Amino acid sequence: MSIRTNLTQVIENIHSAVHKRSKTLINESKNVKLVAVTKNHDVAAIQEAVAAGVLAIGENRIQEAAKKAQILQKQVEWHLIGHLQTNKVRQAVQLFDLIHSVDSKKVALEIDRIAGALGKRQDILIQVNMANEDTKFGIASKDALTLAKSISNLEHVRLCGAMTIAPFYDNAEQARPLFRNMCQLFMELKDMNLANTNIEWLSMGMTNDYIVGVEEGANLVRIGTGIFGQRQY
Ligand SMILES: *Cc1c(COP(=O)(O)O)cnc(C)c1O
Predict the structure, then answer these.
(1) Which of 20, 34, 108, 159 has the least CB density, counted as fewest CB within 10 Å?
(2) pLDDT tens readout for residues 48-57
């Protein structure tokens, strides 16, 4: 299957998932942004995806993203979807339009400091570890709104929503309750009406589970394998 064919299928699946949303989500925007996850794929593959209409690229390693961005420049949006350590914040702020993976006050403060120095306002999402998995990054759901509140006081950071990664299930239906709770948390975050924020994005869903994610209210999905095929490591 070509990248273009895969992409068409993914976009079709997203559209039909939007139409299967429950009535409680009827007032939510029907626009879903697709981030094509290109980790371990080369620039030629990314260029093929861009030619087929991809507008946003997701990478989880800063070094790898920086190399690709040197070639591709700003013809696409760059999204950081992997864990961010404080010592990598400078590069991240220089490169990324949206950072999905902020999970502590410490890293948010460092983003604020660097963004201020660079004269940038950095858009970020809070990563929430909804399933409380030891193996995953993300803040515990019970602490997410407190973190949001403290981030809203930072001048050079703009909180734009939240992101979660579901555990890997054989059947994506198993992720549905978790996605539903995550959407609930997202709505609470919106309803807080925090100054300085623009709570717009709910980033939830990968190749294995994006259809359920969108059905449960995701408006940002991160898809690699479903577009590019299996990654070679
Ligand atoms: C790799 C990755 C994805 C994409 O995974 P696929 O299963 O290939 O779609 C999405 N989100 C994050 C955080 C990732 O690391």
Answers:
(1) 20
(2) 999 999 999 9
d(CA 204, CA 137): 15
Atom 11, ligand 1: residue with shortest CA distance: 222
Phi/psi region, residue 49 (left: phi>0; alpha: psi -120 to 50; beta: rest), is: alpha
Q: Domains (ranges, CATH) in the chain?
A: 3-15+31-225 (3.20.20.10)
pLDDT at res. 141: 97
Rounded to whole angstroms, how far apart are CA atoms 105 and 126?
Answer: 10
Which pLDDT score, from 0 to 100, does residue 135 have? 86
Average pLDDT over residues 158-182: 97
Composition of the chain by helix, strand, coil, percent to 5: 45, 20, 35
